[in-house]
Design a protein that fits this description.
Radius of gyration: 18 Å
Order of helices and strands: HHHHHHHH
Strand content: under 5%
Number of domains: 1
Structural class: mainly alpha
Number of strands: 0
Distance between the termini: 45 Å
């Protein structure tokens, strides 16, 4: 799908660098914090146990919950991009189909991690520190606010394997116009994200409990 004509004929600014990172940040805030904290609260209050005796099947409940967070995430992305372009004059290209695919893959990863957190946590008090422990290193060291290349070499090598580093890099490559969905660098990011999705999905399936 052709990119939408949102790019301006001027040099890229810090805002242009920051916008894809903010989208990646939104993914983890919405997916990880939302599903992790929400499901733990339901478990703690016995809401999930009550759902099991209703006509609503557990997979339907979880599926609806996941779709809700995905819909909210996509809507939030549209709002963020609209504000950045319409009011702050961000200079980006927007290959809509490619960006949506990358966002959906990123959401799937962090929703899976959220299920892992909800599976091992029994109370919300336990959930928040776990979520913060996962999210804060990725928030500050995954290329959200500054390039990973500016970090010390050892730290940069470590954070290059973080899922949000792949997510931010893929979005930034697409929205800068430097990469297309078929580019080898982008395919590498997507492949690494797929590996994270499979790994976190398997772990989530093993640790998730209704009680």
């Amino acid at each position: 799908m052709a990119a939408s004509p949102l790019a301006h004929s001027r040099a890229a600014t810090y805002l242009d660098f920051l916008l894809p990172g903010v989208l990646a940040l939104m993914v983890i805030q919405n997916s990880l914090f939302g599903i992790g904290s929400g499901l733990t609260r339901w478990k703690e209050k016995g809401i999930l146990r009550r759902f099991r005796v209703t006509p609503l099947r557990p997979p339907e409940l979880l599926g609806a919950t996941v779709l809700n967070y995905i819909a909210v995430g996509l809507a939030t992305s549209v709002i963020i991009i609209g504000i950045a372009v319409g009011f702050l004059h961000a200079s980006i290209v927007l290959p809509i189909a490619s960006v949506v695919q990358v966002l959906l893959l990123g959401m799937a990863i962090f929703l899976s991690i959220g299920f892992i957190v909800a599976g091992i946590s029994q109370t919300q008090e336990a959930t928040i520190p776990i979520v913060n422990l996962i999210s804060f290193p990725m928030m500050f060291f995954s290329g959200i606010f500054f390039p990973v290349s500016s970090l010390p070499k050892v730290l940069a090598h470590i954070v290059n394997y973080f899922p949000r580093t792949y997510l931010a890099g893929a979005l930034r490559g697409l929205m800068s116009g430097q990469l297309t969905l078929g580019a080898s660098a982008l395919r590498t990011d997507l492949l690494d994200m797929a590996v994270w999705l499979v790994a976190t999905g398997i772990i989530a399936a093993r640790v998730w409990r209704w009680e």
